[in-house]
Amino acid sequence: MAEYADKFDGKSYPLAWNTSYAKMGTQWRGRFDVSGYTEFLDLSGNVLELGSGDGNTACALVPHCGNLYCIDIAKTSFMTLGMKDPRFHRAVADARILPFRTGSFSAVISRHVLTHAVPGDDIAMMKETARVLATGGMVLIEVFSPGDMRSGKGKEIFPRTYLREEGLVWRFYLGQELDALVKEAGLSVRHFQILSRKVRHDGEIYPRESIIMMASKA
Ligand SMILES: C[S@@+](CC[C@H](N)C(=O)[O-])C[C@H]1O[C@@H](n2cnc3c(N)ncnc32)[C@H](O)[C@@H]1O
């Protein structure tokens, strides 16, 4: 077994993101097009983005939001250019234990955050999401699925869940896994979509694949 995998700490592993942003700064591209989802999301009030990273999604969301709250476990993520936008409320916080009151948000956005959580932490995040959502509120989730070009890289520490040398976890969800998770957290699935596309790097074509799910709190 690789040495780095032996040192895996099931609680503190997301802090590897601190080193990632300190080294690489802004790193996420492919701006999120929220327009296809605004019909179903109430963005006019308090909106929470989990794992806001370098602001790739937050910058697309903020023109549509009443109050956008961005949380990320990596304090270095808030040093990136995108996160300096004065319109965001920001906090260093863990999506597994959110520092917000029950029912505070009309919408929660969680793009590529569950993708970096091991089993057990996935349901903790989903239950916290369900708790902070107001009744009638909606969460939008995006996760990678096994058809993505990044699947399989690193040491497999749980099914379809890989630990990379820099200490980051990458997980690739089956549709039914995400469906079960959301239902276990007490939410109702309202939308399920598989996004498949091809990207070109250095003349080669690679597959990208993710799942977008929307779920509401009754
Ligand atoms: C791939 S980035 C996604 C950034 C952004 N959501 C986007 O769509 O561009 C994943 C982010 O989730 C954050 N993250 C991972 N685990 C977390 C946790 N337990 N609580 C809060 N943030 C977490 C990481 O620090 C990182 O910034």
Describe the protein's architecture and organization.
This protein is of the alpha/beta class and 218 residues long. It has a single domain, classed as Rossmann fold, CATH 3.40.50.150. 19% of the residues lie in helices and 33% in strands. The chain has helices at 3-6, 16-24, 56-61, 121-132, 175-184; strands at 46-50, 67-72, 88-92, 105-111, 133-144, 155-158, 161-163, 169-171, 188-201, 204-216. Strands 3-2-1-4-5-10-9 form a 7-stranded mixed beta sheet. It is globular, with a radius of gyration of 17 Å. The chain starts with a helix and ends with a strand. The protein binds S-adenosylmethionine. S-adenosylmethionine is lined by residues 14, 17, 28, 50-53, 56-57, 71-74, 77, 94-96, 111-113, 116. S-adenosylmethionine binds at residues 14, 17, 28, 50-53, 56-57, 71-74, 77, 94-96, 111-113, 116.
SSE arrangement, N to C = HHEHEEEHEEEEHEE
Quaternary state reads single chain
DSSP strand content: 25-35%
Per CATH, what is the topology? Rossmann fold
The count of helical stretches stands at 5
Quick synopsis:
The protein is an alpha/beta fold. Helix content is 19%, strand content 33%.
Q: Top keywords for this entry?
A:
218 residues; seven-stranded mixed beta sheet; three-stranded antiparallel beta sheet; 5 helices; 33% strand; binds S-adenosylmethionine
Write the layout of secondary structure elements.
Layout: H1 3-6, H2 16-24, E1 46-50, H3 56-61, E2 67-72, E3 88-92, E4 105-111, H4 121-132, E5 133-144, E6 155-158, E7 161-163, E8 169-171, H5 175-184, E9 188-201, E10 204-216
Parallel strand pairs: 1-2, 1-4, 2-3, 4-5
Antiparallel strand pairs: 5-10, 6-7, 7-8, 9-10
